[in-house]
Amino acid sequence: MFKKILKDEKPVIGMIHISALPGTPQNKLKPGQIIESALKEALIYQNCGLKAVMIENMHDIPYLKSNIGHEISSMMAIIGHEIKQKTELFCGIQILAGANEAALGVALASGIDFIRAEAYVFGHVADEGYIDASAAQLLRYRKHIDAENILVFTDIKKKHSSHAITADVNIVETAKAAEFFLSDGIILTGKSTGEEINHLELRDLKDHLKTPVLIGSGVTDQNIKLCYEDADGFIIGSYFKKDGNWQNPPDPKRIKRLLDVIQTITQ
Questions:
Q1: Is the peptide bond before 62 cis (omega within 30 degrees of 0)?
Q2: Distances (CA, A) of 28 to 54, 58, 71, 73, 133
Q3: Residue 97, preceding peptide bond in cis (omega within 30° of 0)
């Protein structure tokens, strides 16, 4: 189903970090301006040759835990709908922090293809506090709203979090639990945004899993050769942005540079 939805053998997914949404401390733009800005970024990715993007409310700091507010989910649904209607891109969504059911509801309403879910299996302590596992409730909700065509990609040992309470459960065991709980794709990251993954962990995961493994942080034009063969997909945010800063808009030169490297790998 992974390849059926995303089509590409190894999809590259560009991040759209939506401007701070209504009601959040850093919000400065009107709803129409926020929607226009997100669509503009989606078109930049499409014009550069990407086939998939993901929207995320990363500017909404500090993040609420799970109950993010109707104003947030409503805006993200409109943005997702605009991207799906006005581009040819596959689109995913993550709603911070841990608002996985809200992300599924938005995806259903807007035609979005996949969600990124944190705290799918095992609990962890994030900067928002303790976030519990969500797989059982989330997949039952997906079944309840008849949204089983929407893929659920799941973080393991999530970045920006403490995993001391599961220190005796290694990353392969964590991933196997997510696979057993019907994850559609496992996301491997570094410890923070933009940080490179542990490549030995990637190989371990590929040796033990049948579920696709995506890299969710730290991919650049300099290191993608090291992980391209093993990974099944790439979620790229910081590197694609101007000056490599996630807070900036996408930089076409950086996008094309990485895609050129991929082309040389696959020739």
A1: yes
A2: 22, 15, 15, 18, 34
A3: yes
- Type of residue at 99: A
CA dihedral 207, 212, 218, 224 (to 10 degrees): 70
Take residue 174 and report the two structure tokens written for it: 């964590």
From residue 245, how far is each of 91, 114, 161 by CA, in Å?
22, 25, 21
CA distance 164 to 14: 31
Q: Is 247 exposed, middle or buried (0-12, 13-18, 19+ CB in 10 A)?
A: exposed
- Three-state SS at 167: coil
pLDDT tens for 120-167 read: 999 999 988 999 999 999 999 999 999 999 999 999 988 788 888 899
pTM greater than 0.85: yes
- Give the pair of three-digit tokens for residue 81: 């709908």
Coil/strand/helix, residue 244? helix
- Asked whether 208 and 175 are in contact (CB, 8 A), the reply is yes
Mean pLDDT across the chain, nearest whole number?
A: 95
Angle at alpha carbon of residue 43, lines to 36 and 35, rounded to 5°:
15
